Amino acid sequence: MHVLATVVSMGLDEILLRALNLAGTNIALDAAMLLFTTAGASYVIVLVGVPLWLRGDREATFDFLVLILIAILVTEAIKFAVGRPRPCETLPNIRYIDGFSCREEFDPAFPSGHASRAFALAAFLGIRFQWRAGVPVGVFAGLVGLSRIYLGVHWPSDVLGGALLGIGLAVLMEIVSRRVAVYARMRQRIVEAIPHFPQRTA
Question: Which of 63, 113, 157, 161 shows a CA-CA span of 20 to 30 A to 79?
Fold first, then answer.
């Protein structure tokens, strides 16, 4: 009964947040979570886009960059439409690390932008290059989402919402890239207009 009363009074979102918000409790864990939250920012563009381009997957690179841009725009639009405060703005005793707290965040909480980008990436790679590419990046995406809760800047439902949004946008991108002729022609023109550097041969 006591557990049930706690769930009712606090809400599942807050219970999960309290359980996972461990910022500042372990130096090694702090470093790992900071690494994932940093990599889950816009750095995914460089980490994935550049290797794809260099290996000659230029259409995939274009689709990936468009997907990330759309994920950013849609996520921000939803954030400001919903206007949900971040947990470290509304709850007492939220753990945080200097430089990675709510003071450094300019937008509302829902959905998580880090999660939407990371899961869009994972779903895109999984769809385009089969599950062997998607699974490890999916694990990475999960850790990115976890890091946002760990740092106290997102509710668990923010991360879930971002993950579902990212996956949905990746599926939509794959449909558009394969079935919408106007998009395919535009992509071809842009890709062909960019100088192609010859690939190195062994």
Answer: 63
List Cβ neighbours of 122 (8 Å cut-off, separation of 6 or more). 134, 137, 138, 140, 141, 166, 167, 170
The residue among 147, 155, 136, 120 whose CA lies nearest residue 37 is 147
For 130-183, the pLDDT digits (tens) are 767 678 888 989 999 999 999 999 999 999 999 999 999 999 999 999 899 899
With 0-12 CB in 10 A as exposed, 13-18 as middle and 19+ as buried, what is 57?
middle
Per DSSP, the three-state class of 112 is coil
Please, what is the Cα angle at 44 between 72 and 96, to 5 degrees?
Answer: 80
pTM of the model: 0.85
For residues 37 and 23, give the distance between their C-alpha atoms in angstroms, rounded to a whole number: 12
CB atoms within 10 A of CB 18: 17
The tens digit of pLDDT for each residue in 93-140 reads 899 898 888 888 889 999 999 999 999 988 998 888 876 767 888 898
- The token pair at 54 is 């260099």
